């Protein structure tokens, strides 16, 4: 699972041990055929219990497919969980053309919280999205700005006080980003 923005521009970050209520998530399912013969199968995809589908995802969907020898295919679905709590998730299942179960991931219990209990301060996408203003400014002061997607904090520019604290940091580091000055 990874946390994503509704417009696909917010940085994605892999989910640890908790989900945030109301935040959009995507699950990418990768199916591979390591054999030398093509395989016909149906992939069953389901969003977690209590989740609301996003991006034209369905609550439950079957995807018929043929995997060529030594190939892989990916499918993604998106959702959000509107309330804090624990929710069951029944991951993808692959069934053969004759209905036999070929593979399945183990079921999960997703722990959903109102606010995250911890912020990953080592990952720019996580800090840009969930970090405090101080954590964002510290991260920018300590890392190579040329390697960061500064547009990830453009949403923070609505706050004049943060904008005023950020610009000196960027000027000192001789860094200009259109998305931030716009």
Strand order of the largest sheet: 2-1-4-8-6
Shape: elongated
The average pLDDT score comes to: 87
**Structural class computed from helices and strand pairing:** alpha+beta
Radius of gyration: 20 Å
Regions with pLDDT < 50 over 5+ consecutive residues? 6-11
Largest sheet: 5 strands, antiparallel
Helical percentage:
10-25%
Distance between the termini: 32 Å
So how many helices?
4
- The beta-strand count equals 12
Characterise this structure.
With 182 residues, the chain is an alpha+beta fold. The chain is built from four helices and twelve strands. It has helices spanning 124-130, 133-142, 160-172, 178-181; strands at 2-3, 13-14, 19-20, 24-33, 39-46, 52-54, 60-67, 71-80, 85-89, 93-96, 101-104, 108-113. The strands form three sheets. A five-stranded antiparallel beta sheet has the order 2-1-4-8-6, with no helix packed on it. A hairpin with a 4-residue loop joins strand 10 (93-96) and strand 11. The longest helix has 13 residues, at 160-172. It is elongated and about 65 Å long. The two termini are 32 Å apart.
